[in-house]
């Protein structure tokens, strides 16, 4: 019987007197995409950062099932091991691609970096792999040597995804991956993400305020309000038959397209 | 006796008397002469002329004497005097290839045509205090190798440029008057002639720190000293009445040509790029720092990422003037008590509100 | 250069042997021991103000001052030559404050202080090569923050450097770094070999001499013990290569050494001569026998 790939128990994070997230628990199974939805200020990004080991919660544990070294407590890992995990088995897609890319390095170098970090030493092969990935995220190959400063927002986001996925991560954290992009660009990006998640059997935790994105990409959903999880369940169930008043309000406020 | 700064003309008169007394110091000692300052503190005079934007050794020496050795104060004095001088035109560009060089070195080649002329410099000394200077009456022997005025010193930059290895210098625009930053306000973005003017009279310490920062990774551009030369150059001027150039003066300048990071790509042949520095008198540290910052400020023009303070045109040009900087920093000594009064009022009010809230919270809690 | 340079009066009792006081020397030697124990790792040390300016070899001078003794023989070179102004200055400094014999012959020296070159003549067991280092941090131009680079070294995270090598190939078709070429020491730390030309990098690998690196202004000492592997970074399909000349030395005919380019006239005519003056001299002497 397989173990959950990520397991959170009672994760609580405070900033001064305010709870950013309180008592959050869940299990994420391999191949699952879990969505965390809520308005801004609901605590979703803080929770994501706690899960990814970027913030230390005041209470609670986060356990990750590694590829070959058993289960680890994410916050008990040494800095070195955590950074290594972040470069290999995990991915983190930032809302602002600039935070997840080397803006001063070419697209090829951005994608190749993880490969070089795990020992790739053949320039031609690194470049080939980077090219493959550029194609997979639907960026023209002749942009391989361009820097992300010369890319549009949508392209930067695709590049960020490629940079993360090139090391075949098992778990990807995504913070509003389509936020700030215009609608048609969003749609293409979502399609791409869905395809990649399927073909690479990725597990993912996805933070979004956009229920449409949640519907398209996630299997299960947690709804957050003011730091608490007010409702959780299968995505379609939660969105089609919301139980909690807050969820009902969120669902009702989607403008029909 | 301290008197509130408001009014008190008598107090100010006393202050000036005290200043004059301190400036003169012990009456048992001989007064400094301007010649002594010009000759024996020559490098101080050079700096004051450069940042005062006025080539006049006796005036600069006077400024230093009056400023009691505070060089920024002296620069201020010289600049204020300069404002009063009538302007009758601008000279032809200095032709430093006509320099009678007392010193000419290049770090890019071991030997160059004309040779490495070491000249007078601290570079080869050991920084050990020389106590023999404390007892006066020093009479160093005349140098055995005097300056050779006939020596031909072709520019290292020209040699590299002929091979196509170094970008050519920007084309001279004689005839087109350059904006004079001592007459017109600085507008941004600034072109290179304006930037160079600003840097030439900019504070040596500021430029030194910025240049240093580029060497330590804050916008590095891989500098090499292509050439430094120091010596006398003629100043030519074309009077309207004559219509041809005449030499009106000879001045000492220090010039630095930096050879920097090559640009270029797969298809564009790479070339080294340039940084330029110039100062009055013998001022290598200033000329070199200026060249480093000049090159850093060309980042935008050379399609380099602007990431560091030295590459930030607005930051550099707005803060390089030490007379402006000194004025504004020190103006904090002027009375500000009206503004401060309003601050006092608001802080007291806010503190009272916090106290009131706390007291209320305590009462509420006690009531539960 | 003439030997009639007026001497400044040092005052015999004013300075300790080799200029530095014994406590300082001890502190530097402790730093050196740490450095030797962890090859390629930059050890901070309490650098002192020296009578030569920062950037002109104070790190190398402090290392030499800490290890030199009357039984040593000192050679000082700059750009490979014994007679460049800075080499002369530093050699004279030690001749006075350390009362130590000096030489221009690589083979005779026990301590060789160098700026920007490794001697062509192979070094032996028992010799010490002291490098003058301007910027000890190999990642400095890619990451200016010291706090960050220390972390990267500690975690062996050298991605930023490998990215810069990749970029060089993408842009120029080759790794365009020619001096201060980064090396991996003992399979663990990436080190700056100081601004020696990449031509000299292979000499560092498993060298029988002890290599000490001193950075005075940045206050770091690092070391490569004898017989330690030192590998220049590269890619499998873009292997590390040294510079080559089509010309040979105009004085001794060498085709194996690093050549200086001298411009002879203003038409741009050039002459190539060994940068290592001792090596060139010795070859010329051999040839005239």
Model description:
The complex is a heterotrimer of chains A (257), B (368) and C (289). Chain A has 257 residues and is of the alpha/beta class. Chain A contains ten helices and ten strands. In chain A, strands 6-7-8-3-9-10 form a six-stranded mixed beta sheet, with helices on both faces. Chain A is globular and about 55 Å long. Chain B folds into two domains: 9-83, no CATH class; 96-135 and 151-320, no CATH class. Chain B contains twelve helices and four strands. Chain B has helices at 9-24, 34-40, 42-52, 57-66, 71-83, 156-162, 192-200, 204-215, 284-297, 313-319, 322-330, 337-367; strands at residues 100-105, 224-237, 246-263, 271-280. The relative contact order of chain B is 0.12. Chain C has 289 residues and is of the alpha/beta class. Chain C has seven helices and eleven strands. In chain C, the strands form three sheets. Chain C has a six-stranded mixed beta sheet with strand order 1-8-7-4-3-2. In chain C, strands 6-5-9 form a three-stranded antiparallel beta sheet. In chain C, strands 10-11 form a two-stranded antiparallel ribbon. In chain C, strand 7 and strand 8 form a beta hairpin.
Q: Radius of gyration of chain C, Cα only, in angstroms?
A: 20 Å
Q: What is the fourth-level CATH superfamily of the largest domain in chain C?
A: Bacterial phosphonate metabolism protein PhnH
CATH class of the largest domain in chain C: Alpha Beta
Question: What's the average pLDDT of chain B?
Answer: 90
User: Count the helices of chain B. How many?
Assistant: 12
CATH T-level topology of the largest domain in chain C = Rossmann fold
Q: Give me the side-by-side strand order of the main sheet of chain C.
A: 1-8-7-4-3-2
Q: Which residues of chain B sit in consecutive blocks of at least 5 with pLDDT less than 50? A: none
Number of helices of chain C: 7
Quantity of strands of chain B, as a count:
4
State the strand order across the main sheet of chain B: 1-2-3-4
What is the count of distinct domains of chain C? 2
Number of E strands of chain C: 11
The helix-and-strand class of chain B reads alpha+beta
């Amino acid at each position: 019987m397989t173990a959950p790939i990520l397991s959170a128990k009672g994760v609580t994070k405070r900033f001064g007197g305010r709870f950013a997230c309180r008592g959050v628990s869940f299990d994420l199974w391999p191949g699952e995409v879990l969505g965390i939805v809520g308005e801004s200020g609901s605590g979703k990004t803080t929770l994501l950062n706690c899960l990814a080991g970027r913030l230390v919660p005041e209470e609670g544990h986060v356990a990750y099932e590694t590829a070959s070294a058993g289960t680890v407590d994410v916050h008990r890992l040494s800095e070195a091991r955590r950074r290594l995990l972040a470069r290999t088995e995990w991915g983190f897609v930032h809302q602002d691609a600039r935070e997840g890319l080397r803006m001063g390095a070419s697209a090829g170098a951005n994608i190749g970096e993880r490969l070089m970090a795990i020992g790739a030493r053949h320039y031609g092969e690194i470049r080939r792999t980077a090219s493959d990935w550029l194609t997979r995220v639907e960026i023209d190959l002749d942009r391989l040597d361009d820097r992300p400063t010369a890319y549009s927002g949508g392209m930067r986001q695709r590049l960020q995804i490629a940079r993360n996925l090139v090391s075949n991560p098992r778990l990807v954290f995504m913070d509003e991956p389509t936020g700030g992009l215009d609608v048609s660009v969003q749609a293409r990006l979502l399609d791409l993400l869905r395809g990649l998640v399927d073909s690479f059997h990725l597990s993912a935790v996805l933070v979004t305020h956009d229920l449409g994105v949640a519907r398209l990409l996630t299997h299960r959903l947690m709804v957050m309000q003011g730091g608490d999880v007010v409702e959780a369940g299968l995505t379609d169930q939660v969105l089609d038959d919301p139980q909690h008043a807050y969820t009902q309000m969120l669902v009702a406020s989607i403008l029909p397209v | 006796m301290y008197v509130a700064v408001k009014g008190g003309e008598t107090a100010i008169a006393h202050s000036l008397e005290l200043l004059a007394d301190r400036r003169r110091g012990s009456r048992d000692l001989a007064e400094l002469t301007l010649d002594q300052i010009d000759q024996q503190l020559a490098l101080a005079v050079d700096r004051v002329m450069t940042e005062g934007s006025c080539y006049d050794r006796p005036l600069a020496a006077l400024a230093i004497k009056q400023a009691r050795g505070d060089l920024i104060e002296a620069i201020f004095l010289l600049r204020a005097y300069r404002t009063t001088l009538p302007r009758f035109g601008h000279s032809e560009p200095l032709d430093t290839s006509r320099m009678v060089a007392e010193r000419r070195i290049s770090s890019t080649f071991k030997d160059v045509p004309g040779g490495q002329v070491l000249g007078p410099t601290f570079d080869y000394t050991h920084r050990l205090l020389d106590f023999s200077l404390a007892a006066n009456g020093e009479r160093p022997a005349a140098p055995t190798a005097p300056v050779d005025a006939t020596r031909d010193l072709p520019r290292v930059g020209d040699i590299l440029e002929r091979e196509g290895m170094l970008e050519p210098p920007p084309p001279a625009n004689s005839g087109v008057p350059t904006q004079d930053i001592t007459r017109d306000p600085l507008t941004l973005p600034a072109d290179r002639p304006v930037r160079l003017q600003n840097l030439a009279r900019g504070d040596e310490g500021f430029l030194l720190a910025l240049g240093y920062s580029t060497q330590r990774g804050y916008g590095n551009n891989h500098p090499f000293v292509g050439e430094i030369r120091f010596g006398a150059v003629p100043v030519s001027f074309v009077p309207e009445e004559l219509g041809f150039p005449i030499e009106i003066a000879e001045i000492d300048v220090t010039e630095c040509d930096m050879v920097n990071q090559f640009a270029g790509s797969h298809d564009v042949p790479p070339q080294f790029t340039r940084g330029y520095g110039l100062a009055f008198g013998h001022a290598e540290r200033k000329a070199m720092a200026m060249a480093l910052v000049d090159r850093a400020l060309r980042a935008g023009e050379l399609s380099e990422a602007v990431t560091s303070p030295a590459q930030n045109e607005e930051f550099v040009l707005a803060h390089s003037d030490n007379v402006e900087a000194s004025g504004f920093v020190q103006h904090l000594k002027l009375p500000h008590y009206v503004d401060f009064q309003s601050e006092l009022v608001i802080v007291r009010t806010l503190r009272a509100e916090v106290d009131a809230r706390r007291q209320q919270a305590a009462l509420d809690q006690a009531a539960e | 250069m003439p030997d009639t340079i007026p001497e400044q009066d040092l005052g015999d009792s004013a300075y300790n042997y080799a200029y530095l006081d014994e406590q300082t020397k001890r502190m530097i030697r402790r730093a050196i021991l740490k450095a030797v124990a962890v090859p390629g790792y930059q050890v901070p040390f309490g650098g002192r103000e020296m009578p030569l300016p920062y950037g002109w070899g104070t790190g190398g001078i402090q290392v030499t001052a800490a290890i030199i003794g009357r039984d040593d023989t000192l050679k000082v070179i700059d750009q490979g030559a014994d007679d460049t102004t800075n080499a002369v200055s530093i050699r004279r400094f030690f001749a006075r404050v350390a009362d130590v014999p000096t030489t221009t012959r690589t083979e005779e020296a026990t301590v060789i202080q160098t700026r920007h070159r490794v001697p062509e003549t192979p070094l032996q067991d028992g010799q010490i090569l002291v490098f003058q280092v301007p910027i000890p941090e190999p990642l400095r131009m890619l990451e200016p923050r010291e706090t960050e680079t220390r972390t990267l070294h500690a975690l062996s995270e050298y991605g930023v450097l490998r990215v810069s090598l990749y970029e060089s190939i993408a842009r120029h078709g080759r790794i365009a770094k020619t001096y201060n070429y980064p090396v991996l020491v003992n399979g663990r730390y990436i080190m700056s070999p100081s601004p020696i030309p990449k031509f000299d990098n292979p000499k560092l690998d498993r060298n029988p001499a002890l290599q000490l690196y001193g950075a005075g202004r940045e206050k770091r000492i690092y070391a490569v013990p004898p017989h330690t592997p030192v590998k220049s970074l590269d890619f499998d399909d873009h292997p590390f290569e040294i510079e080559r000349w089509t010309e040979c030395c105009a004085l001794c005919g060498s085709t194996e050494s690093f050549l200086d380019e001298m411009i002879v006239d203003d038409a741009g005519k050039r002459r190539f001569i060994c940068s290592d003056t001792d090596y060139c001299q010795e070859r010329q002497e051999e040839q005239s026998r």
